[in-house]
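User: Good morning. I'm curious how NAP would be positioned relative to this chain. Could you predict the structure with it bound?
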Amino acid sequence: MASKALEAVSSEGAVFPGLDGTPGLILPCPLASIDALLGPMIQFCRLNMDVALNSGQVWRRIGLMGGTFDPIHQGHLVVAEEARERFRLERVVFVPNRQPPHKADCRITSPEHRFIMCVLATADNPCFAVSREEIDREGPSYTIDTVRAFRAQLEPKTELYFITGADAVLEILTWRDPDALLEECHVVAAYRPGFDLGMLEQALGEEKARKVQSLPIPALDISSTDLRTRVRSGRSVRYLTSPAVESYIRKMGIYRD
Ligand code: NAP
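Assistant: Good morning! Here's the predicted structure, ligand included:
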């Protein structure tokens, strides 16, 4: 299916198409408040998730794109698209975490802002969806809990690919139940040029490193940290993230201090 972007702008707002004939998303214009956005966003995600998870096929491959996405940027979208092609994934579901387990003392933007930005960035791609699985789950967002929650909703033969940055995968032995995680899904480590793949073996040991699939990403030197720094110092983030996310950051005043 061809990717469709913004469908129309009506008096109600901006209309995005839904997946496979499902109703689209109407964003109130102007973006008055986060509350005005959340209802339609959540409804849109439920419908899209329903389609993403229930195609009726027995053999399926679904990507789970894990991250804090503070904020989501073009680098994340490129990773998702590369993974979709390389592993022949039917859908890539972005799973923004509520509480990154290893960042208890860090200042993180509210889960709802990060969730909304993920929806805005992915709404025009019929192969992408955004899940509230971790956003709605209290406590630290352990990846093994997420993988099991998805497994419980899917055909048993579905293959799950948990995709995240190679830097995060280097720490996987400190995550909850890493052995089970490596057994219950394919872990995909996306790396930029210059990343030393030998570090994965050093950190994980030969046997576990062999279970991780590495995914080279074209030279896109974009990071969430850099975007936050740019916004804080009044610099442009245009073309580093999608136009809708850029406007959302500006209108909501995120990352200014
Ligand atoms: P992070 O420390 O913020 O990110 C590490 C590096 O990976 C950064 O360079 C980051 O770039 C990049 N990255 C993060 N997600 C990416 C993605 N989906 N695709 C490509 N690059 C990505 O890591 P994090 O986002 O907090 O954690 C990554 C995932 O691991 C999350 O789903 C998190 O919940 C999970 N995790 C689980 C446990 C556990 O179960 N105990 C512990 C730690 C992490 P950007 O900064 O530009 O995104």
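The chain has a mean pLDDT of 87. The radius of gyration is 18 Å.
Let me know if you'd like a different ligand tried.
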